[in-house]
UniProtKB/TrEMBL annotation, chains A, B:
Keywords: DNA-binding, Transcription, Transcription regulation. The keyword Nucleotide-binding does not apply. Residues 6-60 form the HTH lacI-type domain. This is LacI family DNA-binding transcriptional regulator. Pfam families: LacI (PF00356), Peripla_BP_3 (PF13377). CDD domains: HTH_LacI, PBP1_LacI_sugar_binding-like.
Length: 344, 344
DNA sequence: CCGGTTTACGCAACCGGTTGCGTTATCCTG
DNA sequence: CAGGATAACGCAACCGGTTGCGTAAACCGG
């Protein structure tokens, strides 16, 4: 950094006032005359002066920084396409609000690194996407008094906020769509059940099955990791078993891709012999054969809501700490339209 | 932040020394007795003292922060699966080296925001993934004297470093693989030609075609955006034209997905009638039907190399500013194996 | 044992903002 | 016009580290 940028005292000297006055003028505080204020802001503009965030942090104790968790292990979290989209929404909201985003990389061999970074850098608040309420890190952060907002998980702790979407009603809608199309033997291929979103999806599925009563002949739920190969194997077992389902609701698009794969290798036609739905609206869902019916989460809204909740918590403004946003079912070719005659 | 954490003077008082001595002891500087040093580090450990990065920044002028560009518009850059993987590699390297990563969100309506953030936060160096040498931002940053490393682009400016991979030889290898399998009518479906990676891929393709001489009957190059729908349309035109190709080398997996789509709708068999290859090794490449032959870039190595180059530039250590890393061709089902009899 | 060098540390200024308090000038009201 | 209230600023201490310089003590060789 060769360029010695002007300090607030340089600006003050040019304007013939003291540094304190410049500070007050910049921050819109009272105690500065109208013409003085104007003169100062002119000089600031023409000098291209930008207040040094570091110095401001030191004196105010606030950094205007929010940390976002970035798990280095668990690459599936970060590599999942929802992650960058969330990050973008957070970044957008942060930029508008004058905050910067610090990546909180979390590796298995440095468990204290996130907490250390939060205190070292005076991070004002933390967003934890895809980290559960049982994560010990959450406890560490709340013990510090740092505001925390979870995304995609729900916590009972009153001090932590969360933003989530309607996994349950989404699963329910998809299930109903299957039933409306005449499917009678349903399977929910869920993800790991400790994931709170999966619990909700399960609840929605079973709620609809229960309500449908005799319209459904059989309903089962299995759990697989969010992994295409594992899903293929499980689907092969299901589809070549005694009572193969005619509809599989999957808890992720990667699982659904595995199911499509299994159906193909068994010579089953999708959606004629088998209806398949996914979750997440991953970009590749439009590229599969057939294209995948799935559930889109309002990621941009989720990110924005999380950021705004965090800002409110930082400023100690009252705010709802529980936000649930609506999902949207994206109907494509892997499910048949409603009111088709049921298979004989 | 309720917890008033101890300052360096508190530690000094407990150790019965001055703050300066504690500072020297922490940073391994000379001028501290062995037993004093030991006593101080014990107290630091038992108090859980962490040096305040803000204060240190202010006095040293260095922030131990590196900025990573995050274009909010141009979501295709960020949503591309290579982005999070790069980010992870950068984060990993940064964490090891004691740096933190600040996201430099760039939006169209705030063109100066990145530069402002770099000066405001005293960012030590900037990584620009997927930003070209002609980007005005690059100029702004170098004018500031900030070290910059590009990823995936090459610049002639001596002051900026870059890390890239062998797009040219990768394209060449794929093309040769096509020829070895008996293909004779080739098309390169390239991305936007202003992208430097696309220039290199084009060069590699044509180099191989030229060298193959009479083994190739025809060779063409077309340019489409990195977009599946656009690629489908273009591929339909090509494949239903007068002299349809028997091999299409694509500059991205998304383009290749479009080609697969077009082939399917024309009733062409891949790879029997048509060989298709992609680029980037996107996760969905293993899920397409047929699975996609593609090129994998060493993203983790690229990220690490970029980070380490940047650290060296920041410390004014000598370092290579041009790094090219090797790619790897991932052979799957969309290309046929070599030495098949050429089509009659 | 003595003079000079080295070592170990304290002191205080500094980094660049913010903010409470004190002072002076201006305004308003009776 | 006198008097107090108010507005507009300056001053200086602070935030929590770092670092150049000064000094006293320990050490060294001759």
């Amino acid at each position: 950094m060769k360029s010695d940028r002007p300090t607030i005292r340089d600006i003050a000297a040019m304007a013939g006032v003291s540094a304190g006055t410049v500070s007050r003028a910049m921050n819109g505080l009272p105690g500065v005359g109208a013409d003085t204020r104007r003169r100062i802001s002119e000089i600031i503009a023409e000098q291209g002066f930008r207040v040094d965030a570091t110095a401001r942090q030191l004196s105010t104790g606030r950094s205007n920084t929010l940390g976002v968790l970035f798990p280095l292990h668990a690459s599936e979290v970060v590599m999942h396409p929802i992650y960058p989209e969330l990050l973008g929404a957070l970044g957008d909201a942060a930029e508008r609000a004058g905050y910067d985003i610090l990546l909180l990389t979390m590796s298995r061999d440095q468990p204290a690194h996130v907490r250390d970074t939060v205190v070292r850098r005076r991070v004002d608040g933390v967003v934890m996407p895809a980290a559960g309420p049982r994560d010990p890190l959450l406890r560490q952060l709340t013990d510090l008094g740092a505001p925390v907002v979870l995304i995609g998980h729900r916590s009972r702790l009153p001090s932590v906020g969360w933003v989530d979407c309607t996994h349950d009603t989404a699963a329910r809608e998809v299930t109903r769509m299957m039933l409306d199309a005449g499917r009678r033997d349903l399977v929910l291929m869920n993800g790991p059940v400790h994931v709170s979103a999966c619990k909700l999806r399960s609840a929605g599925f079973w709620a609809e099955v229960t309500e449908a009563g005799p319209a459904v002949a059989s309903a089962r739920e299995v759990s697989v990791p969010f992994d295409t190969a594992a899903a293929t194997a499980e689907a092969l077992t299901l589809l070549s078993g005694d009572s193969p389902p005619d509809a599989i609701v999957c808890a992720s698009d990667t699982i659904a891709a595995g199911v499509l794969d299994a159906a193909r290798s068994l010579g089953l036609s999708v959606p004629d012999d088998l209806a398949v739905s996914g979750f997440d609206d991953s970009p590749f869902g439009a590229l599969t054969q057939p294209t995948l019916t799935t559930v889109r989460m309002p990621l941009h809204d989720i990110g924005r809501a999380a950021a705004e909740m965090l800002f409110a918590m930082i400023d100690q403004r009252p705010t709802s700490r529980r936000v649930v946003l609506p999902t949207e079912v994206v109907v494509r070719a892997s499910t048949s339209p409603a009111f088709m005659p049921p298979a004989p």
